[in-house]
Design brief:
alpha/beta; Oxidized Rhodanese, domain 1; 5-stranded parallel sheet; two-stranded antiparallel ribbon; 4 helices
């Protein structure tokens, strides 16, 4: 098996890649509640890495991603709130054989600012990229 390196792209770079590569798939690894109510990038597939109330890793995560992305060479972009869960998920997908994994740095909401608020310093929404709420 070829060596995989998880790429880190900022939200703007990730959006550009999605526009340029029709094989690329954006997986939102946040919980269903976050995906639906906080909002999500247009076209994102929600496959939770961890889910309330127990916050254990979703035992079906890899199987669900394989179902959504059967081509192990297709770019899989992973997004969470700030970029940590998506990186953990990417490492697991790397172990499962996916070859082009991209962690979206800053996630959907970005890092906390000095007032412990997200969305002011970075992330998908901060960058003005297309998103929606359910």
């Amino acid at each position: 098996m070829g060596y995989t390196m998880i790429e880190n792209l900022n939200p703007r770079q990730a959006w550009d890649l999605l526009q340029q590569n029709t094989d690329a798939v954006l997986v939102d690894v946040r919980t269903k509640v976050e995906h639906d109510f906080v909002g999500h990038p247009l076209g994102a597939i929600n496959i939770a890495w961890k889910e309330a109330p127990d916050w254990q890793v979703n035992s079906m995560f890899v199987a669900e991603v394989k179902k959504a992305v059967p081509d192990y060479n297709a770019p899989v972009l992973l997004l969470c709130r700030s970029g940590q869960r998506s990186l953990d998920a990417a490492k697991t997908l790397e172990d499962a054989g996916f070859r082009r994994l991209i962690n979206i740095v800053g996630g959907f909401e970005g890092p906390l600012d000095q007032h412990n608020h997200r969305g002011n310093l970075g992330g998908w929404r901060f960058n003005g990229l297309p998103w929606e709420q359910s």
